[in-house]
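Q: Sequence in, structure out?
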Amino acid sequence: MTKKTDVAESQFQTDSPSKTADSKLLIDSITEGLLEKKARDIKILDVRALTTLTDYFVVCHGNSETQIRALANSATEKVKEDLGENVWKKEGLDARRWIILDYVNVVVHIFSEEKRQYYGIERMWNDAEITEVEDTE
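A: Exactly. Output:
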């Protein structure tokens, strides 16, 4: 069971019945998919007040290229299963050291531990409100 997030209003809206602008639903589905494959140190960064690019970043890391790929697949499959929504853009699936899944209002960053430390996305967005996701199972 995952710790549910308490997420406020999104700055994004959609008029498509097949898309959700509900960031809370997306984040809950994404984090459940990541936890199913044992993602490490999952953090949610609320960047709504800092940028117009997105509402939230979900950041985590895996221990191997195989796990990083599995984390990305699990998150995208869980969102598709729960919400019927496909990722808008995907990057890094071939290199598997930093995979980005862009759902517009939520952007998922799945790193290797080394790349996460190197790029320091949490340090870069240190004014963001950060929520840590705990695996409660």
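The longest strand covers residues 40-46.
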